[in-house]
């Protein structure tokens, strides 16, 4: 019997990691590691239901920075990781080259000018998942490859697309101004539609 399983919930958590507490007759008692206010963490399921649950695989106590590093990738493990990182005010999580952002609805230190100053001189492989990394990667790609680059920012209404676009544009303006010195500058074009926003970069002589 696994020590942890994933429970699909009908509340705001959607999925919860549960510790297996006990087995009594035809029932298995579980305890959710997280639960919304007013929702009991204790859950009882039948053995038949328990046997259909997915086991929690690997060390799930510490969140990974890239969802591709999860030993078992599915809805539960991804939401669990995003929830863990959000609680630590790490609002950005990678999934390969893609960056997932969760709107904190407040100012966070990781999006400050001081944070960018710290990050801008790091090599790309040492940068954490961040919109700053996406902007820097596009800028350096434009210079090294000599081709136009695009950044797609998508999400539902209220997800933070506008603020993310602003942060991205601030990064591009900062690095292009610092490195221009008479060399080609960067044109930033932002197109907006009902689905998302895109930022395109190209060089001009």
Structure description:
There is one protein chain. With 205 residues, this protein is α+β, with helices and mostly antiparallel strands. Helices cover 29% and strands 28% of the residues. It has five helices and nine strands; from the N terminus they run ββββααββααβαββ. A hairpin with a 6-residue loop joins strand 1 (4-8) and strand 2 (15-24). Helix 4 (131-145) crosses helix 5.
Helical region count?
A: 5
The helix content, as a percent range, equals 25-40%
- Please mark out the parts with pLDDT under 50 across 5 or more consecutive residues, or reply none: none
Quaternary structure of the protein: single chain
Major sheet: arrangement of strands: 1-2-3-4
Number of strands: 9
Q: Report how far apart the termini are.
A: 66 Å
Rg: 21 Å
Which class best fits the helix and strand makeup?
A: alpha+beta
Strand percentage: 25-35%
The description of the largest β-sheet is: 4 strands, antiparallel
SSE topology string: EEEEHHEEHHEHEE
Please tell me what the overall shape is: elongated
Mean pLDDT: 86
Keywords:
4-stranded antiparallel beta sheet; alpha+beta; 205 residues; 5 helices
Strands, helices and their partners?
Layout: E1 4-8, E2 15-24, E3 27-32, E4 42-46, H1 47-51, H2 75-87, E5 92-95, E6 98-101, H3 113-119, H4 131-145, E7 149-154, H5 161-180, E8 185-192, E9 196-204
Antiparallel strand pairs: 1-2, 2-3, 3-4, 5-6, 7-9, 8-9
Helix pairs in contact: 4-5
Gist?
The chain is an alpha+beta fold and 205 residues long. The chain contains five helices and nine strands, in the order E-E-E-E-H-H-E-E-H-H-E-H-E-E.
